[in-house]
Amino acid sequence: MPCLKILTNIPKSQIPRDFVDKIIPLLAKILKKPENKFTCVISGDCYISFAGESKSPGATATLESIGNLGPNENRVIVKELTDFIEKEIGVHRDRFFLTFYDLSSYNVAKSGVTVEAASESQK
Fold first, then answer.
1. Residue-by-residue DSSP string for 87-109
2. What confidence tens digit (pLDDT) does each residue in 48-75 have?
3. Range 19-55 burial, b when 16+ CB lie within 10 A, else e
4. Which of 1, 42, 54, 108 could form a disulfide with 49 if both were Cys (CB 3.0 to 4.6 A apart)?
5. Closest CA to 57 of 93, 23, 84
6. C-alpha Rg value of the chain to the nearest Å
7. What residue numbers bound the domain in which 55 lies?
8. How many other CB atoms are there within 10 angstroms of residue 109's CB atom?
9. CATH number where 48 lies
10. Would you say which domain of life the source belongs to (predicted)?
């Protein structure tokens, strides 16, 4: 159940309506997981400052996943996401900040059960 959350000072009106539809296939490819497992949220009109400067476009994001993250994987992921963010919403790479969270299955839930419990019940 990977989840990408993006906060940006780009006005909501300037974020393409199909942004999440376009980023999900990219996430699925680079994280090697099915598209139907992903959640993506982008929130515009946020107050963001990078190095004391808040007028230029900027974004911060978190990517959470159960597995498929690590030193080598994260290098690929950050390059792909940075390129996509720059192309789609105009945030220059030096004003995009991304953090990764490799989650345990007992710390993620959907449909009222943890992923760990759902996996155990399918055995």
1. HHH---GGGEEEEEEE--GGG-E
2. 999 899 999 999 999 999 999 999 999 9
3. bbeebbebbbebbebeeebbebebebeeebebeeeee
4. 54
5. 93
6. 15
7. 3-121
8. 14
9. 3.30.429.10
10. Eukaryota
